[in-house]
Amino acid sequence: MIIHANVGGNLRNRYRLSIKHKIGLIILIVIVTGFILPQRFKMPVEGATKGDYNVKSFWYYPWGRSITHKGVDIFAKEGTNLYPSTNGIVIYSGNIDKGGNVILILGPKWRFHYYAHLHDIKAKSFTYVNKNRVIGSVGSSGNAKGKPPHLHYSIITPLPYIWRIDKAKQGWRKIFYLNPIDYLKKL
Ligand SMILES: [Zn+2]
Questions:
Q1: Segment 71-101, tens digit of pLDDT
Q2: Ion ligand 1 — residues with CB under 5 Å?
Q3: What is the pTM of this model?
Q4: Measured in angstroms, how far is the CA atom of residue 72 from the centroid of ligand 1?
Q5: DSSP of 121-134, one letter per residue?
Q6: For residue 63, how far is its CA from the centre of ligand 1 (angstroms)?
Q7: How far apart are CA 110 and CA 88, in angstroms?
Q8: 150 alpha carbon to ligand 1 midpoint, in Å?
């Protein structure tokens, strides 16, 4: 009887371990898949070219209450179609104080893509969007009110890239904010 009970216990322990291993493996696969998914950037503002943004606008200082400019501003006529620059999952779409109408998309490599000052939003939270899908249009909502319509676009990594710290104002925050112009200029 005692032997049987032990065998049963051992089996249960083994079973528990294997479930843990399976969950761990699934999480690992999801994380790795996120990293190896191709990024393949697209210009998010329809018809925009290098002339529609300032190549030095990333980390521009001084930049009002934000201190430095943690993205790029792409200028276009109000209502110009907006596409996601990479495929991804809409984590949030809605209205916030500074950004106005905003969309936050989780894309490849576990990077968040933030689109702000939209005129209108055409993507719901927790939906998958590909690069050919219009997600909204360019506007001047939030703290861009009264300014020429433009898309504010930022790329944020939740995993800190500590080697990117530099001596610029707020330079340590470059561990989270990537320069979108590095990708856009290659298009
Ligand atoms: Zn901006």
A1: 999 999 999 999 999 999 999 999 999 999 9
A2: 73, 152
A3: 0.89
A4: 5
A5: E---TT-EE-TTS-
A6: 9
A7: 10
A8: 8
